[in-house]
Structure prediction request, 320 residues.
Amino acid sequence: MGSATARSLFRGVPSLLSAKNLPRGMPANPQLSMNVPLANWNGEELPLDQVRVSVLDRSFLFGDGVYEVLRVYCGRPFLLAEHFERFRRSLGELRIETDVERLRRRTLATLEHSGVRDGVLYVHVSRGAAPLRTHTFPHPSPTPNELIYVRELERDPYAELHAVGASVITFEDLRWRRCDIKSVNLLGNVLAAQAAAEAGCHEAILIGSDGTITEGSHTSVFGVLEGAVLTAPLAANVLPGITRQLVVQLANRAGIPLREESLREQHLHRLSELFLTGTTVDVLPVTRVDGRPVGDGRPGPVAARLRDAYLHVVAEQCGK
Ligand code: PDD
Prediction:
């Protein structure tokens, strides 16, 4: 997505703020305490901790649902069209029928009512609740259950890490073979992220059975090998990351050589840089893998350039 596209996404929305100087938003809804995000559950707005879901909901019983996570900057959802396009695709792959355009409008209304300026939006659709637990799709089809919530980020949890770089572990990619669908089945990701946390690290990068690096537990992975940036090609074993897509475009625009080609585990000790991209981390340099330094052990220039370019797109969204 180019900056022109970024601008067109937010055309008509008043631009008041610079990305560098975002005020902390106060929830506009007096029902909400500072810490309870505003939710929208099937069209009804209420504090997130008051949402009640049936145990017959299929995302509870089977993980039968899909989700999206979006970043909010300056009170506006970042890369909204791209996230909803991926959402539409995930829903289609699982044959969950819902009105994505209505969901998009509801998401925007919930964000507006929340008053959140700098935060995270979560959108989740399950196949719905059926009277009986059956593996097959219930017949007749239940109405999908739709959850949206928006959470203020009190502070960027990655702020310091951007300066010093993150530490990661490598971990076996235990996931199913349709990781291109953003499903709420996340056990392989959960176990990997937990292993990283227990090792005192920030992320796990996943190694497929053929030795290729697929992605992180909740991020896309990029490495700089012999002067070129490499990242896994889009296939069924990785999520088509929205931030990944933007960063690929930013690299192309900046003339940074980039190939969509898998990195392998044995490349790790030869990389001059390694970095992660994702909605929550934006562009995050990695300085240690399994306790060993990457390159010279400091955040590298390619990740820094791409992060600057990313923040520039954010600043454009914010009207700067
Ligand atoms: N995760 N790969 C995986 C497995 C992910 O779960 C994510 C995002 C990414 C990055 O994608 P994007 O740039 O579209 O955020 C890559 C979200 C943030 C989550 O599960 O919380």
Q: What stands out?
A: Residues 301-317 form the longest helix (17 residues). The radius of gyration is 20 Å. The chain has eight helices and 15 strands.
